[in-house]
Design a protein that fits this description.
about 180 residues; alpha+beta; about 35% helix
């Protein structure tokens, strides 16, 4: 097992979020269910322990196939959110990153710090060329993370994402490897 210190004075760490942590993950989702569920279906995918374990197992299988990666963010020993590569295509050099967080942990820069560590790894260790970020246009917190990461807004997929009975515009943001290196 490994963990990465996320800097700052809060002791936040990033660790793989694996199936054996299903109970901890479900407790985290239950604490933040309403907040997390505003823009993404992550909370709906973890309605009970079996579903939470199945979700984490699906990412363990993606990790084994090198097609996706899932990490948790712990603050003071408590799982409060996470970051992921929803897709990861080493052959093409493209991946899509994402995040979620409990409301009580918002505003501390946790996601930005965690994503910097992940993008560093993807670009420097794995040779990724393009890291993409997608967020509902109304999800200003997520869009602000993309901005803080130095990403460029590529465009808007108008009404492309049906969620909770409403079609949402999805903004696509990205950073290219040479931009990432220059921005550090």
């Amino acid at each position: 097992m490994f963990e990465i210190q996320l800097g700052g004075d809060d002791g936040a760490v990033l660790r793989p979020l694996e199936p054996w942590r299903a109970e901890e993950y479900l407790a985290h989702i239950d604490r933040g269910r309403e907040y997390i569920d505003q823009y993404i279906g992550l909370a709906a995918a973890a309605k009970d322990l079996g579903a939470a374990r199945a979700f984490l197992q699906s990412y363990a299988e993606k990790r084994a196939a090198d097609t996706g990666h899932l990490y948790g963010i712990w603050l003071e020993g408590t799982l409060v959110g996470g970051v992921l590569f929803r897709t990861f295509d080493a052959a093409s050099g493209n991946c899509e990153a994402g995040c979620w967080l409990e409301e009580g942990a918002a505003g501390r820069g946790l996601v930005t710090r965690a994503m910097r560590a992940l993008i560093d790894w993807a670009v420097d260790e794995r040779g990724m060329h393009r890291v993409e970020w997608r967020a509902a246009s109304a999800n200003t917190a997520s869009i602000n993370v993309a901005k803080r990461l130095g990403m460029t807004r590529d465009g808007v997929l108008r009404e492309s994402h049906p969620y909770r009975g409403v079609r949402h515009d999805i903004e696509v943001w990205s950073v290219l490897a040479h931009e990432w290196r220059k921005g550090r």
